[in-house]
Structures are given as structure tokens and as C-alpha cells.
Amino acid sequence: MDGVSKIKIVNGVAGYVLEDVPHLTDYIPHLPTYPNQLQDNPAYAGVKQYFVDVDDTVAQKIVVHNNSPRGTHFRRAGPRQKVYFKSGDVRACIVTCGGLCPGLNTVIREIVCGLYHIYGVTKVLGIDGGYRGFYAKNTINLTPKVVDDIHKRGGTILGTSRGGHDTSKIVDSIQDRGINQVYIIGGDGTQKGAAVIYEEIRRRGLNVAVAGIPKTIDNDIPVIDRSFGFDTAVEEAQRAINAAHVEAGSFENGIGIVKLMGRHSGFIAMHATLASRDVDCCLIPESPFYLEGKGGLFEFIKRRLKENGHMVIVVAEGAGQDLLAKYLQSMNQQDASGNHLLQDVGLWISHKINDHFARVQKMTITLKYIDPTYMIRAVPGNASDNVYCYLLAQSAVHGAMAGYTGFTVGPVNGQHSYIPFERINERQNQVVITDRMWARLLSSTNQPSFISPRVVAESKKNQYKPPTQLLDGARCENNH
Questions:
Q1: Is residue 464 annotated as involved in ligand binding?
Q2: Residues catalogued as catalytic
Q3: Does 156 count as an annotated binding residue?
Q4: What does the pLDDT look like over 179-191, one tens digit per residue?
Q5: Where is ATP bound in this sequence (predicted)?
Q6: Residue 406 annotated as binding?
Q7: Which of the four CATH numbers 3.20.20.80, 3.40.50.150, 3.40.50.450, 3.90.1570.10 does domain 8-227+381-425 have?
Q8: Cβ-count burial 336-374 (b if 16+ within 10 Å, e if not)
């Protein structure tokens, strides 16, 4: 994006690099500071250390050798000894954008409660209906009483939408309403929008902190360990897989097909497959497959039906789109957020399997297709995600109160950190099909890889790095 400021880089000894986030004092010097109210909070009376040290950082890479450089670090999240806002002067707002995700209401609740109960902030607005709500709809006054039990509900009490990002109108609204803390919850497109909002706020010299909370059920945001809602999605997917397994096992030559979320990344499908142990084949966007011929999907299905009498197939929504484009008249359409509209691979592959076994194999099968996508998105967060959302929200609040801006929050190797917008917007995280996690799945399902040995060899050659650098751009789960 034009005009976006570069990441603040701080270099230290032994190859130490801190990719820092902006601070309000970067463009508004001599801002006054105030003591953090946390030190007087009775809930923290027994805590030995209230505040995160100013020099605390979190390493992106945790597997090293004794002669390895210290590598890239991010600023550790948490409360600071000095804050840059008086409680009575804070007028915060929260907005949710994009698709639904388990845990959205929990994040909203904990931002409100963190501001109220820790920092004594009483003016918190909810922006109704996504980015366009800044200039097209009314706001909702949020208090601990209003948000008391919203974490038990799915969806978002603020409403959401795609698109509607008009930077000038949004910042005008922020200025007109006297808002000085903006909390933006959304996926990669939303966070790109948040980065642009921050840049415009900085250009105007406004004393406004912009904090992002990354949201994607697909778990495809880089740098952070995982995105909220992912654990719930994997857990809920088990219900659909179990139903498919029961249906398939109840009929001769029964096939259960479950389509799960994952436009460009197959993490939900992969983890749900490994967790269920009932899946015979998992198809994801990162791993190309083909239907006909030796080593193809049809041949594997026939063999598995002969061996077991039934099978379950999990397919991510973004899998096989290249095959669909050949068979269907695909139109290059996009939604309001700029996401490419995908063809329904689940329905298509169900039709192709039915047709092949009826016409070519002359074999009777019973196929059941289950698409739980919107059921999974609409549920509230499970226990794990609720705790995670609580920590994300508090990290964002602590960061904004401490004067940090233009950042997003998330765990890096288990430690919550402040990460520059640029780092999470630079690419999408994907399953590495030449890594051990995918190999574990292939071993679990005993499915073919659907890729030739030559392609595997070339991929390994292109991706090879010295052992200590494996985790620079990949999540640890893929390398255990």
C-alpha cells in the first residue's frame, strides 16, 4: 500500500532484531504520561510483578543452535508502568468486520470489561455493522452490564459486513466523535484496512491508538501461533465427521463427504482429520489431487471401499479449485472484501464420484454430503477459545493504553506480543505439504499424496534451509 510507513527495526548484539510497533510519541512528541491504575487494583494485589519490562521481547524463532543469531523479536504484550491516556479522557470504539467466527463476542466483552475494570474507562462505543458503520449507522453504548453474557452467544452483537472501507469517512467519523482508541476485530482484509486507518490518523497527527485483533477461522494468519475460533471450529467439525462416519458405515459401499472451511489454507481440515481418526482421505488447497488414473482419487476410493466397505472424505472449501475451473464455466467474481468467490467443491466432487462409480465402475455406492460451514461459524467459542479471546482482548487494551498504535496482537511461541500490521498482512499461512505435520496426516489416513516423487523432491529442494531457520516463517506445530 502506498504511503504505509516501514516497520520500526531495532538492531542489537548477536544478530538481535526487534520488529517494533509504532507509538503515539513517534509523531506526537512530549505526550504526558500517567501512573497505571493496575498497581491499585485489588485483583492484582498478590502479583509480584505488575508490569511488563520496557525491554521485554518475544523471539519468533525458538529452535536454535549454540552459534545461531538471536533473530527476529516482537515487543511483548502486557501492562506498562506508565500510560498515555487518562481514564476519564478515553473514548474507545470497537468494530467487527468480515465473516463470523466463534469467540467474536468474547473479544468484545473482554475489551469492554478490561477498559472498565482495569483502567476505569467508561466510554466505550460499539460500531454497528462493520467499517461502513463508522459513517452509516448509529453506535451502541457498551458497558459491562450490556456485554455480561454475550460470550455465550455466537456471532457478534455489533453486527458485521464486508467492504465499506472509506478511509477518509472513517477517520472523519473517529475525529468527529472524539474517539481516541480504536479496536478493530477482523481478518486479513480487515487488518489491511486497519493499517490504512492508522496511516491516515498518523498523517493527520491525531492522538488516536489503533489496535487490531486478528480474526480468521481458517488459522491462516502468519507469525501468530493460532487465530481465535480455530479450536472451536476443529471441535465442531468432529460432529460433522462423526455423522458422516455413522452414515457411511451404515450402508454397503457408503461414502461420507464433509466440506470444511479453508479457502486457501487447510488447517481446519488437517487438524479435524487428525483429531477424529475416522477420516480416510483429506483434501486441502495446498495439496493438488486428481480424480482419474493410477494413483488418483477414484482408484483410492475403490480400494478403500473393497478393504473397509465404507469411507469418509474431508475436503476443505478451497481444495481442487483448479479442477473445477476445467470442468465448470468459472467466473472470476469477488465478494465485497475482495475475496475470490469459490465454486462448491463438495457438491462437485460428490457428483463426480457418484457419476464415476455408476457409469465407469458399474458399482453401487451410497454417498452422503455434509456441509456444516455456517453451523461451525455461528457457535460460541469453546473453553479454550474463550480463555484465548480474553488474553487477546486484554493485550490489546494494555497496548493501546500504553500508547502503542498500528499493531495487532497475538501469541508468538506462547507469549502474547505486539506485531506490526505489515507482518500479518504480508502473506497467508498455509499447510506445508513437505513438512512433518502433513506426513503425519498421510500416515494416519493411509491416503496417497497425489503428487509425484519428482514434485516432492523439487519442493524439498526449493524449501530447504539450515535446520535452525526452519521456524522463521512457519508455525512450530508443523515441525515437532
A1: no
A2: 218
A3: no
A4: 999 999 999 889 9
A5: 99, 162-163, 187-190
A6: no
A7: 3.40.50.450
A8: ebebeebbebbebbbebbeebbeeeeeeebebbbbbbbe
